UniProtKB/TrEMBL annotation:
This is Clusterin C-terminal domain-containing protein. Residues 1-185 form the Clusterin C-terminal domain. Pfam families: Clusterin. It is found in: Secreted. It comes from the Eukaryota. Residues 1-42 have a biased composition (Acidic residues).
Amino acid sequence: MCVLQYDEDEDEDEDEDGHEDGPGDEDEDDDDDDDDDDDDDLPNMMLWEEDCSGRKPLEGPLKEDLEEALAMAERFSQQYNSLLRRFEEQMFNTSSILDLFNQQFGWVSSLANNTDSQDGIFHVQTVIDRESEEKPDEEKKPRETDVSLQLFDSPTMNISVSGDIPWTDPKFSEVVAQEALDRYKETAVLVK
C-alpha cells in the first residue's frame, strides 16, 4: 500500500535531498523554476518506499479485512449473476407470451390499422325475419333471421341466426357479432 506524505513546511531553497541550492545549482533550477511557477502553491508529496515495495505480506487484521471484502464482493457478484439470469428468463418468457398473443390476436391490430371505413366498425345493412317454408316431404324447420352486415372494410356478410332468439334480445347481437368476427378472422388469416 502506497502512502502519500504531504510536506507542508516546504522550503523553496531546499531540493529533494534537503540541500540548499548553491551557486552552481542555479542554472539547472532556473529552467525548472520557470515551469514550476504555477505549482509553487501545491505541497510537496513524497512516497514512503517501504509501504510501496510489496515485500511485506499483509498480516493481521488488515489481511482479514481484505479477505472479508473479497468474499463479500464474490457473494455480490454471484447474486448479480443470479438476478441477471432470472431477469433474462422472465424476459424470454414475456417475449414468448407476446409472440403467442401476436399469433392469436395480431389480426385485430392489423384490422384496426388497415380499416378505411368511415361508417364505423360494425354496420348492419339488413335484418330479415323469415318463416320457414313448409314442404310435404320435409320436417318443419325453425324460423331464421338473416342479417346482412359489414365488418370494418370487409365485403358484405350474410349471417343466419336461429329464430329461437328474437332480434330484440341482446343475445341476438352477441351471436351476430361473434359470427361476423369469426368469419372476418378466417378471411383475414387466409389472406396473410
